[in-house]
């Protein structure tokens, strides 16, 4: 029964009457596995820890060690794997805090080159024999991001080659890429640039100046978040309120699609947006795709744009805003429509009571500075649509977010750590944002495009903290492990946003902590062959 359940959850090919362990060899020395467990009910559908240990010992003796990335908890104590585990946890469905990347790469390299697990000289006796065992929950997004990062930074692989190779080894044909979340792909692009320019990284506190949005639908909240507690948890630093929302150009693009049709059925009629869209185009508001423009983040398939920095940006500075035409467009629209706050008040009368107004061009300006303690920035949008007032329900119809790192968006690797831009703007289109719990689905369209204007926090001192990759044989810092029994309030677990129906007085939806779909994963050996394991005795 447990074997059947494990196969249903992991979705491996049925090649043997006994249950297979869900693992694959990315290379001869890198093994990726879904998160093992020694507790019920998880061990019924995850890799049983005792079976995984038995198999690793049978194949590799004492020459294996685990790298785990689970902020939600490993599911086992360190002593259960003989203490051979390194902890670098961060939340599910997100990229790692970039400051963790250099020590992760160094610790894996030192172990594979024969060094002690927690620092020490290399040993030629063990060089070439060891393996690293990488796991998160599913052994896909987080594990794939780090596996590809190691191949790029330590073994010289091209970024796309590493991503394609991981997909080939980890995923069944037709089930998509192994690393699929846009922000994680952006991080792989960052790692490629980090490697190409001397592995320089400076973690600097950041201030969010404003968020510019085009084609914003009504009822959308915008939230600024970042990593805290060494990356184990996400914290919401600011949620923009009604008084911080400036509608520069009123109106809203027309809705389309099944979700929007359903919203209309519950009392939220579609707007007639053709005339408004035309006026926005006349005012110079950019509505075209920006994919492929120079200066982007560099991640494969990235539909973002890095705007020239080193100056104050935003709608108030004509000709100096993000992307030039972007700021000009908002300014021209503002002069054409008159008072932006009057537009906001007018729009509020055309939506349901209490609903946040949308607009063809909207600027979110914080009443107080929004400071993030590091360079990793998360911007999330969530649309709540009210049903008819007699029902007292809201429908969460859109959920999306994006991560970016201001050191890389400020061209730090290319210009040198001391010359990285002090300010800039990160621009992204709706299609390129991250979806719900690792999936591409975001619900109905909440906006067309968004530009986040940022600057280094403080008085202009660009110091920050330099994060270097420890040399071979040098001690490598680790992060304190999350509670192995489980952490319920970690973003990406039970706290992650989802589409749902809520009472009007409900808080944010909890979502599901362990509902991750593992379908499409496969087990493969060092040469890419399908791996059939007899987990009863730990032998192949």
Automatic annotation (TrEMBL):
Region (Disordered): 269-358, 463-540
Enzyme class label: hydrolase
PROSITE patterns membership: PPASE_TENSIN, TYR_PHOSPHATASE_1, TYR_PHOSPHATASE_2
Feature: compositional bias, Basic and acidic residues: 486-506
Keyword set, alphabetical order: Hydrolase
UniProt xrefs under InterPro entries: Dual-sp_phosphatase_cat-dom (IPR000340), Dual-spec_lipid-protein_phosph (IPR051281), Prot-tyrosine_phosphatase-like (IPR029021), Tensin_phosphatase (IPR029023), Tyr_Pase_AS (IPR016130), Tyr_Pase_dom (IPR000387)
Bias kind Low complexity: ranges: 339-350
Pfam families in UniProt: DSPc
A cellular component annotation (GO) from this entry: cell projection
Domain Tyrosine specific protein phosphatases: 125-170
UniProt-listed SUPFAM superfamilies: (Phosphotyrosine protein) phosphatases II (SSF52799)
Chain ranges of the Phosphatase tensin-type domain: 12-198
Bias-annotated ranges (Acidic residues): 507-517, 531-540
EC id: 3.1.3.67
Record-level Gene Ontology MF annotations: phosphatidylinositol-3,4,5-trisphosphate 3-phosphatase activity; protein tyrosine phosphatase activity
GO BP, sorted A to Z: phosphatidylinositol 3-kinase/protein kinase B signal transduction; phosphatidylinositol dephosphorylation; regulation of phosphatidylinositol 3-kinase/protein kinase B signal transduction
The protein's name: phosphatidylinositol-3,4,5-trisphosphate 3-phosphatase
Species, as recorded: Metarhizium acridum (strain CQMa 102)
